[in-house]
Amino acid sequence: MIPAENVRIALQGLTANPLRSGLTILGVLIGVASVIVLVAVGTGSSAAIQARIDGLGTNLLLVTPQPPASVPGAIAAAATLTPADVAGLENRRANPDVARVAPLLACTVTATWRSTSYSPSTCLGTTSAYEQIGNYHIAEGRFLTAQDERSHARVAVIGQTVLAQLFRGQNAIGQSIQLNGATFQVIGVLRTKGTNGVQNQDDVVMAPLTAVEDAVSGYPSSYSRIAVEAASTTRENAAEAEITSTLDTTHHVTSATANFQILNQATLLSASSSTTQTFTTLLAAVAAISLLVGGIGVMNIMLVTVTERTREIGIRKAVGARRRDLLGQFLVEAVLLGAIGGLTGVAAGLVGSHFEIAGVTPVVAPYSVVLAFAVSVAVGCFFGLYPASRAAGMQPIEALRHD
Amino acid sequence: MAEPGPVIRTSGVTKVYGGDQLAIHALRGISIVIQRGEYVAIVGASGSGKSTLAHLLGCLDLPTSGRFVLDGVDVQRLDEDQLAQVRNRKIGFVFQSFNLLPQATAAQNVELPLVYAGVRRAERRARALAALAQVGLADRVHHRPSQLSGGQVQRVAVARAVVTDPALILADEPTGNLDSEGSAEVLAVFQRLHAAGRTIVLITHEAEVAQRSTRVLRIRDGLVVEDRRTVRPGAHAARAARALGAPA
């Protein structure tokens, strides 16, 4: 028999009972669409995390004071991070994998402009190096310079949230604001950076470290953190080891009594990214189950069809249909159910992925589309095989006797 | 129909259903020869084994023992697919319960054997229309079985039986589900096919139907108990005699 005949006969079979065929196709459709949408949600949340990693700053390592794990007989204290530590880390010969170092002095301030007051969540005294380390970009004006630091200049750079809260749309550059009463001139506005998952990175005021010490925090100061940029992503671990050894020396501690901690936020986020991957796999598995259920629907309906059409099978056999003709007819019918369900499911999945789901913007993964469609066809083929072989194996006389 | 020799030759054909003590001997040794162009009626009471014989002659089933040669082909040696091919090429069936596909039109039903013979669509359509014209249904080509009378439905089935140009037309109680008008229509068609030189085997329990044939085989308890050539008046007898005298 001509293969095209099989498709024609199968289509006639499917259209003979449109409601039943439609519902079976719906089962496959839901399976395929949910695979595509759920994988897209997983991919979308991974992409969001990747964007956060990228926003953090390139190859950022943060050194923070940390009381050592309790040592018997010793009174443990957190380290103070001092200019000596910064100088030690800036020694390129001892730390060849460290590119830049910036001390960070965090303080709590209330900023005032004219009659408006606002308390930003972050106020940092830092150096010009932090622009690159922290991956900040200037939207307007300029960032802090080494000159500002040397001259203890009372200048400040503000984030978009602070700009909005304090200036409410008016031009901030050149304006004087009070930080806890001390006057600073706004010289730059940062480009928006969004959240890093913990805090709003736009809710920030930055000023030269020296000026902050003079006017806000007072002496002697201990840095809240030291931000370090590794020479490259692949050198992060080497840089971390060098920092540890440098600070162990300057603090006179060993790894057991270390009173500081090095945080690699990218590593932390990578861990959460792998959590997301697990989550994606889980979602895909649930979706795959619904696709499987759709496949069982195909098998169920094909079994009903074969039983219902026993007489037709008998007639076809009596006029000369061979085993493979009937096997082909019913298999093509099942595969068509799967393929039509697959195609409509792909369409539904692509449409569904345009909507934000649970706060995640789905990103359609091409592999999931190809895979879901291929599986829907394979499901039709696999689950159609048994009903089709049952049809093909019928004895003509018995099939003809069937009512 | 170019094969030499008889259309049907059976020797000692038996059919046993079940096994051991419960075995039912439906056929106990049937040996018949049917020549080309004959119009044979196989008659018998219900349970005589005539339906079983019809299934064997139609290659829907295989005998338990004995030999059956159909149009030169030893059926006993064929596998399932080859049997399907024999049914397709050499036999045209007409059933008591019509056995047409209800959702297909008359033309589609008649085309069905040609689909499995691998005939192309255009040729299929042309041959189906010709077959329908032969049974007087040229104006009912696009009707579904439910839109036709009983006699018309059975004529569609006859058209399906002849469309492949088979060696044998096998009709199993073709008038069993028809009223007298429908029966007359269908029997008239068989008469015309016979006159055109077709070989027809008709299974029936109605004496009236059997009368139209040129030969009557009576079956009882799985054996042939009577083999009678009928002489009928008029042109049919003359044509039948010619057909008998000169087998293709």
- Oligomer class: heterodimer
Number of strands of chain B: 11
Distance between the termini of chain A: 27 Å
CATH architecture of chain B: 3-Layer(aba) Sandwich
**How many distinct helices of chain B?**
8
Number of domains as seen in the coordinates of chain B: 1
Largest sheet of chain A: 12 strands, mixed
Domain tally of chain A: 2
One letter per element, helices H and strands E, the order of chain A comes to HHEHEEEEHEHEHEEEHEHEHHHHH
User: Strand portion of chain A, in percent?
Assistant: 15-25%
pLDDT averaged over residues of chain B: 87
* Mean pLDDT level of chain A: 84
Alpha-beta classification of chain A: alpha+beta
Q: Spans of chain A of 5+ residues with little confidence (pLDDT < 50)?
A: none
Count of helices of chain A? 13
Helix content bin of chain B = 25-40%
How far apart are the first and last residues' alpha carbons of chain B, in Å? 8 Å
**How would a textbook summarize the main sheet of chain B?**
6 strands, mixed
Give the C-alpha Rg of chain A.
Answer: 34 Å
> In terms of structural class, how would the helical and strand content of chain B be classed?
alpha/beta
Characterize the structure shown.
- The complex is a heterodimer of chains A (403) and B (248).
- Helix content of chain A is 54%, strand content 15%.
- Chain A has 403 residues and is α+β, with helices and mostly antiparallel strands.
- Chain A has two domains: 3-52 and 270-401, no CATH class; 99-227, no CATH class.
- In chain A, strands 1, 2, 3, 4, 5, 6, 7, 8, 9, 10, 11 and 12 form a twelve-stranded mixed beta sheet that branches.
- Chain B has 248 residues and is an alpha/beta fold.
- Chain B has a single domain, classed as Rossmann fold (3-Layer(aba) Sandwich).
- Chain B has eight helices and eleven strands.
- In chain B, strands 7-8-9-4-10-11 form a six-stranded mixed beta sheet, sandwiched between helices. In chain B, strands 1, 2, 3, 5 and 6 form a five-stranded antiparallel beta sheet that branches.
- The termini of chain B are close together.
- The mean pLDDT of chain B is 87.
